[in-house]
Each structure stands twice: as structure tokens, then as C-alpha cells.
Amino acid sequence: MARAVTPRRKIITTAVAWAIGLLIFFPIYWTILTSFKTEAQAINDPPLFFSFDWTLENYAVVQERSDYMRFLWNSVILAGGSTLIGILVAIPAAWSMAFVPSRRTKDILLWMLSTKMLPAVGVLYPISLIFVQFNLLDTRGGLIAVLMLINLPIIVWMLYTYFKEIPIDILEAARMDGANLREEILYILTPMAIPGIASTILLNFILAWNEAFWTLNLTAANSAPLTAFIASYSSPEGLFFAKLSAASTMAIAPILILGWFSQKQLVRGLTFGAVK
Amino acid sequence: MGHIILENVKKRFGEVTVIPPLDLEINDGEFVVFVGPSGCGKSTLLRLIAGLEDVTGGRIIIDGKDATSVPPARRGLAMVFQSYALYPHMSVRKNIAFPLRMARLERAEIDRRVKAAAEVLNLTDYLDRRPGQLSGGQRQRVAIGRAIVREPAAFLFDEPLSNLDAALRVGMRLEISELHKRLETTMIYVTHDQVEAMTMADKIVVLRAGNIEQVGSPLELYRNPRNLFVAGFIGSPKMNLINGSIAAQHGAETIGIRPEHIFASSEGGEWHGKVSVSEHLGSDTFFHVTCDGIPEPVTVRVGGEVDLHYGDDIWLTPDPNHLHRFDTQGLRVA
Amino acid sequence: MATQHSRSAARLMLAPAVVLLLGWMLVPLTLTLYLSFKKYLPLRGDSLQNGLEWVGFENYARFISSSAFWPSVQATLIIVGGVLLITVVLGVLLAILLDQPIWGQGIVRLFVIAPFFVMPTVSALVWKNMLMDPINGIFAHLWRFFGATPVSWLSDASVQSIILIVSWQWLPFATLILLTAIQSLDSEQLEAAEMDGASPLARFFYIVLPHLSRAITIVILIQTIFLLSIFAEIFVTTGGSFGTRTLTYLIFQRVVDSQNIGLGSAGGVYAIILANIVAIFLMRIVGKNLDR
């Protein structure tokens, strides 16, 4: 039960919370705002907060000069592909650990988690070696595989915690009703776990989208996603603040919107079910 | 059909033996109740019959065919779970139709059978609701509906009434009994409640620690409990069990006498005692009496209203025709 | 508890995930371990085809004794420690603030968690240019407005700048988890404490903070694992110069820039060991949670 709070106190906490919220959000807000300015206005002193000529020119220039759409498409393919394959591998695994646990289930779960903690840099060379060997460098397929593997433990864990909440009675009822394993998973488990599966997909899409070690190190012109597209802006060339802002806005906008929808699941996914 | 034979059936979980070798025959059309305290293995036994667990040894024969290694889906049995286990994402209609869909029946046939089952169970108005929108009793009926549409060889009930409140439980008990009379299909029913066992069963199987203590009709068990455990478990309120010199007078280690088989008087009788607690139910009155020479209080039933209170003198006389005698092993002495 | 049939089905369904992860772990790990005992300088003509010279623990010794090693350990510790301190302390305060009744709570929450969804390369670039640029950045404008001389953040206060950027990225994570934990606190406990005469400060230290201890531990451990391998933020801003070369970045440079694979692999093994020490603690907590 929430208690009644004096209006004065509510006004003060509201003001403080909004001030801090806006402060934290400011870099993003400023980036979005700057993307609509001209280059000269972008570096105007004092900074222009509203009174400037809104322009979409930067977006056009960025798209024209660096083919934003191709990077965007790569990001979608990489994040989507790795998440989808991950889910397909993880659903059976999570089913088996949640509903037919054995003495080793706990160890397997923890071991899967431990692979997530392998520092990427420690295996950078071997992975690139394997990529060279199998002609995977700068291919989407190779990167999808890597992104899928680094996120697989999280996918399995999230699904596992969601599946755990489904009473096994219901699956057994389906078995008694004549469903085979495939039908049990397809008609009973999956529809019941749809909210959990959806949030797992969402969170892992975001993680894969933002992944910036392997995408920077294993891609070049062909399969580079938005992370690499943005990194190419790190060397300035003349006046470029507005264009940088436009490029940044385009890179984060899709995921920012998705992310805002998934904030609840974020906690569960990133703490491996330890905090709900 | 629905003739089930358990032959030498065993179950171990790791090192723990849940069911020692056990034999049991369930005849076609019988209403069999497995009853016992929690942890006695009755649910495990039911799950073994269902095929949701493997037997560690022995055979399960259903209608003459060895079903020991047949998966649950193909044993032709239907089960009603304690939690009902309804599919929350499906409407009542789809829940009931699910086993038929799995059996690849034609749509028209499925619709016909679902409609028939819904009528029998008074669910017609609720067919398009989700389980979450139903009351406990309605959910229970959906679970039963899902079982009956398959026309199974036998129904398995796993404590189906334990999640219902007391009033509803009595009603559902009657409904299930009526259903059995109408369908004449074998039913195996697990409960820890001896009242359910007594009221519904053709045959009661009393289990303790995986062992069958006694098998028989409710009245057989009531009249001739084979041992102390069954004597104490069947009947409400419980049978009075008395040790010591009074038992010795009757030539037994322990004697048992049900509260309804003791004659009480305020003037004179075999045992003298004082009333400690009196429970007035209207139709009956139960006295808990502290008797001279008997350590445990003796419960006695008296018809109607009797005006005796705490501390009043009372004399009890057991009916010799209903006195049960047990030996040192706790077994009944004839 | 299940039948033999479902148990073998379960094993079959678990297999793909286990095999994939096992391969993902073992193959590169074995290669790294193997290479760490070899002299391997591709630029000087070494190649896998011609066979590599076995050098024993020389790479391990050289990695530690190199003049860059200890500074990199120091940089790693300062950056990880600084970010942890900032995110946990501010995270607790923010979580408590957001738990209060305020108008527009949902919107404020969205503002606060937004940085977590910004890809690392973008946040690094935005901070580097839009905010920290010594001439045109917002900070420079602000400094000049108050009559101060703008700071060249990424060269003069490089480590602090990196800490600031990374903290900004991870504060939402800490806040969100701690907020979830706070919301699970039974309000009757607080009311009981209030009835017992505990001041707000006492209630915070004796009830709220102990309740949050598990969530704080989890935040620290998970963040440590991610922070030990921050890469893009440094790659885009300082490129490892001005004292911001962390262990991860040093190994990256050994492997990619100076193409000393053997040395880099030995460093990689160190990084793996380090990560595993942290991981063991995390797994204990998560494992305990599994038993409940």
C-alpha cells in the first residue's frame, strides 16, 4: 500500500527526478537536436537550443555519402538472424532443462553462463584465424554465428526462467491427451511462453544490435553493421557535428524505441533470472 | 473396456523406494480409490499407470496388453490433474477438443463430441471463455470434459477436489459419482480424504509407504479393518484404540471401538469417566471422555442433543459386536 | 522425474546448444593456449604452415614484465573501480528517487534508461565530439560561459573522461536492477521500522540497504565482467593513449597492431583467468538462486 504523500514533497521529488532524468538524457537529446541544424549552427557559440533553421539536409548527406541503408540492413540481418537461430537452438534446450531436470542440469546452466564470461579479446586471434580458414571474414553468415554464440547463454537462461514458471502438469496433461513431443512444444509450451519468448527475442536483438567488439573486428565493407558505420566517423573531416549527429540518431533510434518497450525484461535477462 | 493389472510393480527414485513390489487388479467399470496419508505413494502409483513415470520393475497390463513401455499418449487413459492443468491460452472449447485434435479426428466429429460433453457438464454457455475466466468448479468440469471426450479405457483422477472449497467439493463428489454411473468406465481416483474414498468407491485401496494395507469395499474396510492402520484411517471420527489392561480383558494387545458403537449413560456402565470436550452438531453430539484407566480420551457419539457438559460424570459401554481386536503385530484377531 | 523416453528426448534437445557452446569455448581457448606458448610474429615471416617455435612460458613472462603491463592493470582497475563506484552509489540513489511517487514517473524512467540502448560506438563518439570537444563541445561552451578555460578532456583528463562515458552507459543498468529490487521490498517492513521509531536515515541503512545487498552484489559482478572487456569506448575516443590502455586494449594492440600473436595470446590467457575469478563469485550467487 502506497501511503499518501504531501503535495509539497511530491512536487520536490518530481522536480528533482525530472532534472536528473533530463540531465542523463541530455547527450541523446542534444545529438538528435543537432542533427537538424546546419554545420555552422551546430558549433554556434552560445549553443542554439531552439532558434535555428530546422533542416533534414544532414540525413540526406549521410545516406548519400555512406550508404546508411546498407549498414542498417546489415544490422537488421545480423541482429535478427543471430537472435532467431539462437531462439531455435535455445527453446529445446530450455525445455529439456526446465521440465526434465537431471542432476547435472544446474551445472550445465552455470557452465553455459560461464562461456558468456569468456573475454572476447582472449580469443580474438583464434576466431579470426578460423574466419580466414573458412572464408568467413566480412560475411554476414560468420558474424551471425558469432553473435548467436555470444548471446546463446542469455537466451537459454531467459527462456529457462520463463519456462520454469509454467506448471509441468499442463505439459503432462498434453502428453496424456495424446500430444507427442513436437506437438507438446508447438501447441502448448510455446503459446504459453509467448510473452517470455518475445521479451527474450527483444532483449537479444538489442544486445546483438549494439555488440561492438566482434562487429568492429570481423567486418569490413560488406557485412559491416551500424556500429562500424558510426566508428568510421571517429576521424573528423572539417565541419561534421551535424552529420555525425544525424548518423548517430539514425543508428540509435530504432533500438531506443525497441529498448523502451523491453525495460522490464532487461533486468531479468541481464541478471540471469537472479533479480526479477 | 478398462481392465488394469499391476504385476509386481516397483518404483524407486534413486535410492529411495517409493513403491515396493505390488500387485493389484482393477476390473472393468470399477471405481477404485487409492487412499492414504500424504507421501504414501498413491500419486506415484497413479502416474505409473498413466505412464508419466517409468516403473522400475514389473508389468502394467491394460486390457490384456502389456502397456509397461507404452508412452502415456497411447495407453488410452485420460487424467484429471489436481491443478486441473487446463491450457490457459485456449478457450474451453479448444481445451476440450485438444485430445481429439491430437487424435486427428475430423472437425465435425470433434465439434459433435465437444458439444455433447459440454452439455453433460453444463459448460455450454462457457465454451468460448478462457480457463482464467472460470470459477474453480467450472475449471474442474472442463478438466473432466477434456477427459471424457476421448472415451478412454479408464479415467485417472489425481486429488481432483482438493483445490475446491468444502461446499463445492461435496457437489463435485456427487457429480463424479453420477458420471461414473452413467459412463460405466473404469475410474481410478487418488485422494487423502477418507470421506471421498468411502462415499465414492466401489473398491478402496489403502496405501501406506507404498504398501497396500488393505483392498476392499468401503463397508468391508469399515467393518473388518485388517490392521491398526486401516482401522485408524477409515471412519470419521476416528476409531478409539485402547491398549493396556482393558485390552487384555478382551484378550488382545489393542482393542478398537468406533465412537458410534459406544453406548453412553449418565447413570451407569462399563467404563466411568468425565466429559472433557463436547461437540454439539445438532444431529449428533460427540463427547471426548477422559476414562479411568485409559490414557487417551475416548470419543463417543450420541444421537441428538444430550445435556452433558465439561466435568460431568459419564459411563460408557462398548458394543461387544463391534469391538475390533488386534494382536501385538497390529493385525486383526478374528 | 520423468520417463526414460522423455529423458532421452531431453538429452537430444539439449545437445545442439551444448555442442555449439562447447565448440565456441573449447576451440578458440585451445588455440589461444597453444599460441601463447609459441613465438608467432606473422610480420617477421612466422606462419602456422611452417610450424612455430615453442617458447614455453616466455610470452607469459614477457607480457607481465613489459613496461605497458602494470600501467594497463592500473588503468583497468581505476576505470572498472571508478565506474562501479559511480554506478552503484548513483544507482541506489536514483532507484530510491524513482521509487517515490512522482508525476510522469514513466517518462523519467525512460529518460534514465535510454543511455543503455545507445550503441557503444555512438555514445563514445557523441561524448567525444558533442560534449567533450575542447572547442565546440557543450562542456567547452559551459566553461567559457563561466569564464573558465575549456578542458581538453580526452587528453588532459582522459581516464576520468572514460569513466564518465562508461558510467553514463551503465548507470541505467544499475538503476533498473536496483529499482526492481527496491520494489520487491515489503512496505510493511518499513512501516514496522517507522513504528519502532527509526528515522528515515536509519530505515535506509538498516532495512533498505541490507535488502538491496544481493542486487548490489549482482550489479557489481555482472558489470565487472562487462567492464573488464570494454573496447569500443576506448577504441573510438583515445585509442588507448593518455593512460587509458586497459588490459583488454593492450592485448588487442599486441594482437592486431603489433601482430605479436604469441604475446597477445598469453595476455588473453591472463584476461581469461581474471574474468573467471570474478565469474566464480557471480556463479555462486546465481547458482544459489537456482536452488530456490
From TrEMBL, chain A:
Superkingdom classification of source: Bacteria
Cell compartment(s), UniProt: Cell membrane
InterPro entries xref list: BP-dep_ABC_trans_perm, MetI-like, MetI-like_sf
Domain ABC transmembrane type-1: 72-262
Main location group: membrane
Keyword line: Cell membrane, Membrane, Transmembrane, Transmembrane helix, Transport
Membrane topology field: Multi-pass membrane protein
Transmembrane spans: 12-32, 71-96, 108-131, 143-163, 184-209, 240-261
Similarity-based family: Belongs to the binding-protein-dependent transport system permease family.
Protein name per UniProt: Carbohydrate ABC transporter permease
Taxonomic path: Bacteria, Pseudomonadati, Pseudomonadota, Alphaproteobacteria, Hyphomicrobiales
From TrEMBL, chain B:
Coiled coil: none
SMART domains documented for this protein: AAA
UniProt keywords, alphabetically: ATP-binding, Nucleotide-binding, Transport
MF GO annotations: ATP binding
Pfam families: ABC_tran, TOBE_2
Protein family: Belongs to the ABC transporter superfamily.
Protein name: ABC transporter ATP-binding protein
Automatic annotation (TrEMBL), chain C:
Source domain of life: Bacteria
Membrane disposition: Multi-pass membrane protein
Transmembrane segments: 12-37, 75-98, 110-127, 162-183, 204-232, 267-286
Keywords of this entry: Cell membrane, Membrane, Transmembrane, Transmembrane helix, Transport
Signal peptide: none
Subcellular location: Cell membrane
Keyword Nucleotidyltransferase among record annotations: no
Pfam families noted in UniProt: BPD_transp_1
Annotated ranges, domain ABC transmembrane type-1: 73-282
Similarity remark: Belongs to the binding-protein-dependent transport system permease family.
Protein name: Carbohydrate ABC transporter permease
Organism: Chelativorans intermedius
Native organism taxonomy: Bacteria, Pseudomonadati, Pseudomonadota, Alphaproteobacteria, Hyphomicrobiales
